Amino acid sequence: MSRLAILYGGSLPEYAVLNRPKYSRWLAGTIHLTDLPSTDLSKFDGLLIPEGLHHLRLQASSDQICKFLDQGGTVLIFGDQPLSWLPGLDWEFRPVMKPESGKLLIQSPDHSFHRHIGLEDILHFHGVFHPPAGVQTLLATPDGGSVLYIDRVSTRGTLLATSVDCSRHVGTMTNRISERFLDRLLPWVVEELLTPSTAGDK
Predict the structure, then answer these.
(1) What is the pLDDT of residues 153-188, one digit of tens each?
(2) Of 19, 32, 34, 155, whose CB neighbour count within 10 A is largest?
């Protein structure tokens, strides 16, 4: 199984997610954000960075994470990204929106992501991205803002960026939709996104 690590900021919702067996079984390691600078990321295939972590601390570790990407690693980031701390990252604030009444559109419909996760599995999203040319957008707003995209052009690795929440609502047990999203996301990430044999459809 591919090795996926997750960054941990110490909040109670994060702790609750990490201690649920149906999620922890997909994770090969947990890295506290304060321990990130001294952690060897090369032993992992992917690094999941949930929403709500300290943005300045993430920015301070930008070089380390870019090195991981340039060595072929995969990084997944969630939620708002007010700092452009990774190559090609350009996030625009917008009021939180739900994927209803045509406010969120599926792009690249044949991508494996859509076989696992549908619009009904998304509670809401926080703003949009304006990614560089050549990336693959999977979810977008009608005006062309990217809500989830995969970037293999800015580095030698893979960056999945989305403004969808990953874990906060799951950890507080406040919404079944968010739980379903994470239930379906982690198996897809480990079994398909991080798996070399599916590189053409990651």
Answers:
(1) 999 999 999 999 988 788 877 788 999 999 999 999
(2) 155
